[in-house]
Amino acid sequence: MKKVLILVLLLSFFTLNFLSAQRESLTYDEPVHLKAGLEEWQKRDFSMDANNPPLIRELAAIPVVLGIKPGRQYLPSRMVITFLGLVLVFLVFKYAKNKFGLKVGLFSLVLFVFEPNILANSHYLTLDIGVTLFFVLAYLSFLKFLDKTSVKNTLIWGLFLGLALTSKVTMIPALFLSFILATLIKRKKLNRAFLKRAFVGIGFTILVIWAVYFFTFAPIIAERKDPTRLSERIMVLAEERNYPFVKELILWAKETPVPLGYYLATLKNGLVFNLSSHRIDFLGRFYPDNRFYFLPTLLALKLPVSLLLLFFCGLLRGVKEKKKEIFLLLIPVLVMLLIFSFGHLPPRVRYLLPVYPFLIIMAALGADWLSKKHFGKVILGILLVWYFIGTIFSFPHFISYANEIAGPRQTRIFLFSDSNYDWGQGLFDLKKYVEENNIASVGLSYCGTDNPAEYGLAADRPFAERFEDRCPLYQIKLKEEGKKIIAISLTNYYYCGYYQHSEFSKDKVSEIVGDSILIFK
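Above: the chain sequence. Below: its structure as tokens.
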């Protein structure tokens, strides 16, 4: 019976993702990721996305490399991401079961399968669910390595660390700081044998990273004429102040192909990007840079309330029972919150997906605690029903989920943008809306790199690829007679400045299509 329940839950996870993938247009980053993945496989060119390593893109591009047509919605590649999500689901279940018992494992499975933010990112050709999988594998394999530094555990940790480091640059500080804190909590003595095995593991990690880049050689600094680049500015400064060594070093980095050159270039670019200030949108307002409370606030609005309450129950249980394993689960959560809250990157909840498995296991511990008392069982039942209903009512656009703290659906939409709510997924819904409401023409400002013409929404001119060029209204004529509307994606509403014009004020929104497109009549 338990095996049947596990199978049903895994099948539910796949089904929800498969159906959502068929009901949503391509999100903003997906065409870029597929194109870059194909370049990496076919030409060994890793320069298209210079800020992120290629592993997840390479995995997602495999069906297309094998000759399967991607289709309008990149369904084969999206299903690769769903498969990674399924592996992650099962990993969370197995870890929770092995450490805390079958009951906690089953609670973890239920909570993970129906977590809307996990579902939102488990069927897009984007990096985040793959990053989450390999982050969790790297951290858990390190804990096993701390327990027993055998050759097998050393190589497994090195493998998963290499896969994590080739998933996303931002994982590097989070992983290594988590490793340090876990070592301190476990009070592991750093003797010679341990350090020797650790260096072996890191050496294997470097080999894995190079393998992901197909053992290519490349310069660390790509050749590109751009006076605003950091390397060009350093060259000018070196010439002005007569630093020949600095100048020679930069010339060497530009002209000399080296092993892991692409990866080193990605680390450099990622560091520069992550340390740069960005214009930040937060709860309907813009700020010149990130503030420490932005991301925790968004997380509190996007996590299901039931999950939050169960997490705090699990945390309270950990404090009362003084379970070391529970505090080891907290390390990645606190580390990633610290890094992303005080960094310069825009506050996107998807950046914190690697903490969700640990939050969910903690919540499962809280659910198990409640289930041991009669009154607690009643509370747990209410929380689980609330959790399930909130998720199902978000189908198929799980990305636009927000909890009750954020307010009613019709108003909370204005608190979010970009991948926190509107990433370009609503073209199917817009097409359905114009067909069912006798719409003759649409003025469309759409957030995304998908082509609305593929959905029967051909405009008076080709849709531009750059975001800035998609801000003006594109005129779409559907028929001679009927209603005229203006449709503006939520992200464009803010980033293109429509919210500043009185004719597009919030009170003039007549309808919201697909949880993400504002309709003005």
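Strands lie at 217-218, 258-259, 280-282, 285-287, 439-445, 474-477, 483-489, 511-513, 517-520.
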